[in-house]
Structure formats: C-alpha cells, structure tokens
Write a structure and sequence with these properties.
By secondary structure, the protein is an alpha/beta fold. The protein is built from nine helices and ten strands. It has a domain of 184 residues: P-loop containing nucleotide triphosphate hydrolases (Rossmann fold, 3-Layer(aba) Sandwich). Helices cover 31% and strands 23% of the residues. It has a six-stranded mixed beta sheet with strand order 6-7-8-3-9-10, with helices on both faces. A four-stranded antiparallel beta sheet has the order 2-1-4-5. This is ABC transporter ATP-binding protein.
C-alpha cells in the first residue's frame, strides 16, 4: 500500500504557455507513472450492477475519455473515483494513494466537476471561488491571486461580482471548473464538462485543459461528444452496462471505424424502428 503523498506547496508555478491557460498547474511528484488505477471496481444499487468489475489504468499526463450510452455506469465510476461514492468491491488508487485507506490524501490530489451541478447559487462568483480555495486550505492571498488568474483565463472577470444564480449554464460550468482547479490538483475528474456549453466557452475550456495536460496534469472525463473525444483524448474506454468493452488509445479502440461508429457497434447498434410506421401517418 502506497503511503500518502506530501501536500502541495502554495508556491506559484510558472505560467502555462497557452493564451487562456491559468498559471495554476500541477506539481508532480514523479515524471511518469499512473495517475489513476481501478481494479475490480463494482457498485450495485439494489439488483442493478451499475459498475461491474471495472479495471482501468490512466497514465500521468493523459487526456482520458470515458464514453458509453446513458445508464452505462460512467457517472457512477467517476463518482467513485472522486470519493463521492464508495465501491462495493475493488480498489481505487489516485497517484499511488489508496483511496479507501487514505481518502483525504487521495481527494487532495483531485479536482472534481460533478455531472449535476449543485452550488451555493446565492454567492457571487468571486465568493464561490474564495470558498473553494479556503476549503482546500489555501491562504486567502493565494486564493485571491489564483481567482484573478482563473477569471481571466475562463473569461469570467465581468461575472465575478454577480450572483451565481444569474449565470448561464456555460458560465456555471466554467466557474465550477475554475473552482476544481484552484488548488492545482494533479488529476481532474470531469463529468460532461462540455455539456450545455457554447462553442466559444468550449474552446476556452479545451484550451485550458490541453495546457493543463501538457504541463503534466491528468484529465479523465465523460462525454457524449464522440468527435470531441476522438480529437482531444489520447486514450479512451468504452463502458456498456457497467463493463469496459474496449480500452486503449483512440486509434486502438476505433480501428478502421470512426470512434462514433465503434461506439455504436459496442453499444449494441442502432435501435429497432420497426413498429413506428404510425408515426408517419401524421394526425390532424
């Protein structure tokens, strides 16, 4: 069992090269290794196997995509990685830290963007980011400095003084992602980070995440956007009915097909439309 890693320091790292990238980037303890390791992870809800013996290995510095149909177990898997759910069986290691034996040490290494956004919507954006920062143990001066950097990177300067309840879906996604990054985590666990986000905001988020990975951070995300996953992810796992049916580099998983075609094939093909002939009769 690996011992907990040392806590991050509060020293500011060098600025990222990307135009939109914040200066907070991960401080890695090793040049290479495994950011996440799941072995035999299982979760049941009643008689339903939401996740059924999943094995995953996510190398450090990887943009890792988790794809699958609705109800496949993606959100449950990410929730267990983030420590929001406890597996029934199996082990999860984050940066070599056993998440069951050392949950606080594992959580310190992660930034999390959950699927269903819940936040303190009566706070302003600035107050929310301050809360995220001090909750992670950062000194107030560091929180203020990083808030300014993140607001500039995510194009949120004009919104920080407004209540979060007034934010659009895309703005809310950006401020919560900024909150997930404020403590300079080694791993980002993101559930549908591009859902309901406009193209401009998507480009900004993708630019920031790409710079984060280029500097040694690790991103594991779920997405329904096959084209985006195919374009930005270096590795991908296809989960269907709580099991990993394919895993590897994007090229290995898709083979001669597009990733979307391979995904449809693994998910069981297209649905049977026979019996819907009445839909073409048009009422009225």
């Amino acid at each position: 069992m690996a011992a907990p890693v040392e806590q991050e320091t509060d020293a500011e790292p060098a600025a990222a090269a990307s135009t939109h990238a914040p200066v907070v980037v991960p401080t890695l303890g090793a040049a290479a290794g495994e950011a996440l390791v799941l072995r035999g992870v299982t979760k049941r809800f009643g008689s339903t196997h939401a996740v059924d013996g999943i094995d995953l290995t996510v190398p450090v510095g990887t943009f890792y995509g988790l794809v699958g149909p609705n109800g496949a177990g993606k959100t449950t898997t990410l929730s267990m990685i983030a420590g929001l759910l406890e597996p029934d069986r199996g082990t999860i290691e984050v940066g070599g830290v056993d998440a069951a034996a050392h949950p606080l040490a594992a959580k310190k290494l992660m930034g999390v963007l959950p699927d269903r956004l819940r936040t303190f919507d009566r706070l302003t954006g600035r107050q929310l980011l301050y809360y995220y920062g001090v909750l992670r143990g950062l000194p107030p001066a560091v929180v203020e400095s990083r808030t300014a950097d993140l607001a500039r990177a995510f194009d949120l300067q004009d919104a920080l003084g407004r209540s979060v309840s007034d934010y659009s879906a895309g703005m809310l996604k950006k401020v919560m992602l900024a909150g997930a990054m404020i403590h300079s985590p080694r791993v980002l666990v993101l559930d549908e980070p591009f859902e309901a986000v406009d193209p401009v905001s998507s480009a900004i988020i993708l630019d920031i995440l790409s710079a984060y990975v280029a500097h040694g951070g690790t991103v594991i995300l779920s997405s329904h956007g096959m084209e985006l996953v195919e374009r930005v992810c270096s590795r991908v796992a296809v989960i269907v009915a709580g099991q990993v049916l394919a895993e590897g580099t994007v090229d290995e998983v898709r083979g001669e097909l597009t990733l979307e075609q391979r995904f449809v094939e693994l998910a069981g093909g297209l649905s049977d439309v026979e019996g819907l002939e009445w839909l073409h009769t048009f009422s009225g």
